[in-house]
Amino acid sequence: MKLPAVALASAIAFTPLVAAAQASAQSSNVPKLGTCITCHGRDGIGTSPVFPNLAGQKSLYMVQQLELFRSGARKSEMMNVVAKSLTDAEIEALAAYYEGLDPGK
């Protein structure tokens, strides 16, 4: 499934923020968090209406979905690229991080 034009425009607009987000996330022990917080936020709340909230999401579900994105079985232009670079350990760490966040924020 291709991203709607507004989602793609949002992603492009956030691209310069990736470096800042990664620098912000370096204080965390979660690898690759900086890439995720650009769209999904440090608190797990999407930074735009087109990016889903991840706070409180069950880690098993997130692991399964990230593995599907990584393999290409689940289609998303953005997430296929992001997930392709993730190791199993990084996927587990990211899933545990977001599961541990309060979705009520």
UniProtKB/TrEMBL annotation:
<feature type="domain" description="Cytochrome c">
    <location>
        <begin position="19"/>
        <end position="102"/>
    </location>
</feature>
<keyword id="KW-0349">Heme</keyword>
<keyword id="KW-0249">Electron transport</keyword>
<keyword id="KW-0479">Metal-binding</keyword>
<feature type="signal peptide">
    <location>
        <begin position="1"/>
        <end position="25"/>
    </location>
</feature>
<dbReference type="InterPro" id="IPR009056">
    <property type="entry name" value="Cyt_c-like_dom"/>
</dbReference>
<dbReference type="Pfam" id="PF00034">
    <property type="entry name" value="Cytochrom_C"/>
</dbReference>
<dbReference type="InterPro" id="IPR036909">
    <property type="entry name" value="Cyt_c-like_dom_sf"/>
</dbReference>
<keyword id="KW-0813">Transport</keyword>
<keyword id="KW-0732">Signal</keyword>
<protein>
    <submittedName>
        <fullName>C-type cytochrome</fullName>
    </submittedName>
</protein>
<keyword id="KW-0408">Iron</keyword>
<dbReference type="InterPro" id="IPR050597">
    <property type="entry name" value="Cytochrome_c_Oxidase_Subunit"/>
</dbReference>
